[in-house]
Write a structure and sequence with these properties.
- 0% of the residues lie in helices and 38% in strands.
- It has no helices and 5 strands.
- It has a 5-stranded antiparallel β-sheet with strand order 4-3-2-1-5, with no helix packed on it.
């Protein structure tokens, strides 16, 4: 088998919120992944901390709640 394609869910990947049961008002918003959890249990999928455009705090999402746009943001866009 060929090598797996690069994971689209990586640091600074631009994503759109496609589902947010806990915060439905965030659906459709765009942002960038600035954090990825590293669960100790291999059966637990990682969660993603996203800085949404027009927000100054991170919001945590599950993978299925996000859709990558295929674009990356720049580290400098989030340096303070």
């Amino acid at each position: 088998m060929g090598q797996a394609a690069e994971d689209e869910f990586h640091f600074y990947a631009e994503v759109r919120v496609v589902s947010s049961p806990r915060r439905p008002e965030l659906e459709g918003r765009m942002g960038a992944i600035l954090g990825i959890t590293e669960p100790t249990n291999p059966d637990t999928p990682p969660a993603y901390a996203v800085m949404l455009d027009d927000h100054d705090f991170l919001v945590q999402f599950e993978r299925e709640e996000l859709q990558p746009t295929g674009r990356d943001r720049k580290h400098e866009d989030y340096s303070y």
